[in-house]
Amino acid sequence: MTNRVDFYQAEQEKTAMPAGGAVVFIEGRLCENLEVVEISKGGFGKYGSARMACQMNDLNDDEVEIGKEVSIRWLYNPLYPAGGAEGLVMFAGQIEKVEKTIGPDGVSVEVIARDFSEALERITVFGRHIRDIDGREVFIESQASVFNEDGEPNACDTLIEDGGNEVRLFAADSKGARYWNCADVIRYLLCEYLPVGQLTVPAQERLEVLTGGATVRDLDVTGMSLLKAIEKCCGQAGVGFKFVPRLDESGPKQAIIFYKGDCGGGVELNLQQAGERLSISKTNIWKANSESGTPVTSRYIGLGDNKVYEATFDLVKGWSRYDEDDDYEKFSPSTNSDFYKVKDVWRKWCLNEAGDYAGEPFNQGTAFDFIPVFETGKYIHKRRRFWPAISCDAQGRSMGYFLEVSYDSGGAWQQYMGAFENLLDECGIWLASDRLDQTLWNALLAGALRVRFTASVVSDERLSCVTADGPVGGTIPVVERIVDAGSSFKFRKVIGKSIFAGNNAIGKADQRDDSAELNQFIRQKAEANRQAIETFDIATPFLAIGFEVGDKVISNPDARSIFSTTGDNRSTAIIESVRMDFRKQTTEMKIVKSKM
Amino acid sequence: MRQGWLKEALFAGQTANGFKIGTVMSLGWFWIRTSGCRLVYRGESMETIDFDNVLAVTSPETDEVTLPDFISHEAGKDYFYVVRCANRYGQIEQTLKAAVKVSIDSEGKLEAGKPNGVFGLAVKRRRDGQIELVWGYYPIEQKSDPKEMRIYTDAGTGEVNYQEPIAVVQYKGKRFYQYKSEIPGNGRYRFAVRAADSGGNERRSSKAVEIETSGRNIEAIEIVGVISE
């Protein structure tokens, strides 16, 4: 036995392939006067376009008009081994621009067509298509198109049928809502804003596999073009997309294809070893130019929202002890016209988080120590404010601000049923009753009153995670990149110092820890922004039509190692853009090599 | 690459293919043709080539294959032949690159080669009121050089008369062609174009384009004045 394999394909020795036949059809009708100049393919920001030219005299008046459908077809023989010609669609789009130039040879016309990206650019995203709790569907134009607003789920739990497509809508209420994933958003945008039958959209399941089920976070696309909105969504999931012509006679003429970095098909680009006789079986590179930068490791620091903790806080007196008095009438606004001078006395209770009440005339001790609450010493003494409790009642609503008093120096506690105000410029409350409760007054005078407050406080520390796309701590320089995800990722915790902690009698606390989600988000970000190690500009010696954006470039082991992908399995070279020049009969490509 | 002969001879014994290739001499264990060979297969279409049945075997040096006499060809049918190479180890290529179509005419003889069909045939009404036919001809794999392009019409009857062309356009190579005509009258007209060689052979294609005419010329509107309020 042997592992040798003989190939029988005859070696091609011609230096150039014969020019292919590309013909232009406008609105399905052969346009014999237009000559194809170039076809460009690209993804993410560039997309596909075609340039055609002719002389004005050759053109009928109504033949070329803005918005008309264009397809460029490559002639091939579908009847092999018999003879015949059919057109294989290489480009499909619409006429975007017609340029006329007057010169010595008359008026020359250049027609520029773009693929479906042009149509998506002209559609503006706004409003929300909402599925109400009774199953009714309604589109509200004035609502912002924000998916998972503030990191909270706002997608309907079930998929609905919309023009033959299964699509997810916005939920009317946050109760029972689920998170939008990237696949949901893409399909919602394409199905909601595009008329049915204009573009082939991938199925939900395929998109979910491609995007890895990635959840979008606080994705606000209000007022954006449909193209930018999809770009923004895909940016979060680290996938790209492009528009390709469909070969089927029926159905939409174009399809939107989503692709991920190194998942494209493999194409070979080879350059023979120096000194060998030129063979187009072994060489399909005519020109190559490369540019490489300093390799650096990007260290991504992802920042979410500030951490929030719920605890029960003992409050201290927030008034000057020199203003205290046992005159009951003096401390009521209805019995004292100068009440404003003593409004804080007996009524203002504070946390003293900034140390405002440490010295004279308050003497309430040192500033509040947040270490047991925030579980870290990384905070500063500054004024904060109380926020509603994270713990919820049986209906799932926040317990709000829970004030308790003790009339026996902390022996027994009871909920304070009188009116009080939560202070907005510091952590504290103000008893707002017209006249203070008599029991409370007596406890105050006896010095036995204690006040405690259950609420949440925002810490100085934000939810964060760090990931790197290469070695850290070695000789390669490290560049730190901050990804501020804002309020999309949250951390809310009820610590043991809260009276509601572990209380099964009330509802489930609205605790949340998005650390894992933030970590995934930052990893996706790092993957999507892979740093280019080297960029290549390649030209083929003939008009090659088989190269597509997103294809992975490989080389034959016998060929020159231009892309160094055979010996380096940690990097990959991907085609970023393709330009087919029909006049020069060459295909130019931009290839980006980056770390996997 | 496949070595189907090995499995076939071992499990089915002395097969017809084994005799033709010569592997029966080794009871199917060894490949005999150490310099390789070429194998001929046939089918009624490219999709239905019978690769389980080797029709003929030739040496790799020869450029011609003579089929055995027992292989018959029915009148009026098309046959597709494919030649595949086997290397010195009996590995057979899996391509369809070497293929040929053989057409037998109604008299049982080899049918003469014909030019290709035209592509992109379209009809439109020009601003000057005439009807214009546009098409292209691409000589890819053509079996006979065209001499002219023949234009046929149904003259409004619904059935294209392929016996008498209404016009002939001389063939001038791989390019686009056009034909202009006055509007025959009100109604629905069908047109077809076929390329014909010097022997008058043309590919029988039923592709036709259709246009409905009202007989009136489209004239520009004359602006007699502008009223400003």
Quickly give the CATH architecture of the largest domain in chain B.
Sandwich
The percent range for helix content of chain A is: 10-25%
Portion in strands of chain B: 25-35%
Biggest beta sheet attributes of chain B: 4 strands, antiparallel
Number of strands of chain A: 32
Question: How much helicity do the residues of chain B have?
Answer: under 10%
Total individual domains of chain A: 4
End-to-end separation of chain A in angstroms reads 38 Å
Oligomer: heterodimer
Q: Give the overall silhouette of chain A.
A: elongated
- Name of the top-level CATH class of the largest domain in chain B: Mainly Beta
Mean pLDDT of chain B: 83
Distance between the termini of chain B: 84 Å
Q: How many H/I helical runs of chain B?
A: 2
Q: Uncertain runs of chain A with pLDDT below 50, 5 residues or more?
A: 6-19
Strand order of the largest sheet of chain A: 2-1-5-6-7-4-3-31-32-29-18
| Mean pLDDT over all positions of chain A | 87
Total strands of chain B: the figure is 11
Kindly provide the radius of gyration of chain B, computed on alpha-carbon positions and rounded to a whole number of angstroms.
28 Å
- Outline of chain B, from the CA principal axes? elongated
Describe the structure.
The complex is a heterodimer of chains A (596) and B (229). Chain A has 4 domains: 22-115, Baseplate protein-like domain - beta roll fold (Phage tail proteins - horseshoe like beta roll fold, Roll), CATH 2.30.300.10; 121-260, no CATH class; 266-295 and 531-595; 302-525, no CATH class. Helices cover 11% and strands 35% of the residues of chain A. Chain A has helices at 117-121, 182-193, 204-211, 226-237, 371-374, 438-446, 515-528, and strands spanning 22-26, 29-30, 35-42, 49-55, 69-76, 86-103, 106-114, 128-131, 137-140, 146-147, 155-162, 165-171, 199-200, 219-220, 239-245, 254-260, 266-268, 287-292, 297-317, 348-350, 402-406, 414-415, 420-422, 428-431, 450-468, 478-484, 491-494, 512-513, 532-539, 552-554, 571-581, 586-595. In chain A, helix 2 (182-193) runs antiparallel to helix 4 (226-237). Chain A is elongated and about 110 Å long. Chain B has 2 domains: 4-103, Sandwich (Immunoglobulin-like); 119-213, Immunoglobulin-like. Chain B has helices spanning 4-12, 16-21, and strands at 37-43, 56-58, 78-86, 99-103, 119-125, 131-137, 146-153, 167-170, 175-181, 187-197, 209-213. The longest helix of chain B has 9 residues, at 4-12. The N and C termini of chain B lie far apart (84 Å). The mean pLDDT of chain B is 83. Chains A and B meet through strand 2 of A and strand 4, strand 5 and strand 6 of B.
